[in-house]
Please model this.
Amino acid sequence: MYLRRSSVLKYLLALCLGGVLYSEWFVYKIQPLFWKNLKCESEQSCTKILFIADPQIQGELAVPPPLSYLFNWDSDRYLKSTFSIVENYFRPDVLVYLGDLMDEGSISTRAQFHGYVKRLSEIFDSHYPVAQVWIPGDNDIGGENEPIKHDKIKEFSTVYSQPNVIVFQNISFYKVNTITYSVPQPLDDDLNFKFAISHYPVIERTAYAKQVINSIHPDIFFCAHEHKSKYVKFKRDYASKETHLLSYNDPVLSISFDDDWLYEIYVPTCSYRMGTSKIGFGAAVVEKDNQQLKYTVFWSSARFPYLFIYLFILVILIGYTLLCCFIRILSKFSNIVKTEDKQFLLQRT
Model:
């Protein structure tokens, strides 16, 4: 019995170790094997941009402690692991954060807000100097199903103190705030390639979109919020519009800027807590004297299937422990019965 029990225990320990190694290391290491090849034809005239959308790190109110500590720890660790793999693979020059950085930023206290900012800095901790562009989302400053929180706008602007236009090499990133419907002041004689970055989509807000286009003259739009991967292609005069979903098997999207079409690219969420399994990081390269942009999504592995594996292993371990306890109790009871039977027989003789 001891040998059999010892063998079962070894198999269970091997199962646990294998499950942890696969779920926490191997699954991340093999991710790049499934990504589309997004390379620069010339490193000297190419800019690599990584888009981070809707990480929405979990707060302290949705789930009470101590479960909140466990949930937040796992979610933060997942974001850190997937980001680290993407960064090492792609080596971006610019990181663009498209808002909804926090899940409870708009309803947090000042101390909680700064705690979330610290967690974000630990999650998206780049291993080398890189330019970073931050914009807020509705979960950071309000605006969706709740009033815009002007104190949170001020707090966000203080923590992430940046101008409304960020210039990197020959690219200008214009922070278009579709929550407050504000348009950044264009730079004087700006001949750079222009990105209009926002949290909410711009193009579906026709009057506001025309205001942005006439003021900034952007070459391309990038947005988030919907947690989906797609792009909208439309004529500058709004005479025609097309919507295309982007999925795992789609080739790299190649966009030229020598026609009358404009594009708005929707970057998917990078968090597994957003109710979708299609999660990842948007990546773009701009080259050929800013006349061509290539875009793809570096898809992340789902997280919930591996959490279910942990749950399955936990159930097996609990079941095995209970079975062992039951066998020991049954064995003790059997020994007691045998002892009583022996005493009864001795008394009769």
In short: Residues 146 and 338 are 73 Å apart (CA to CA).
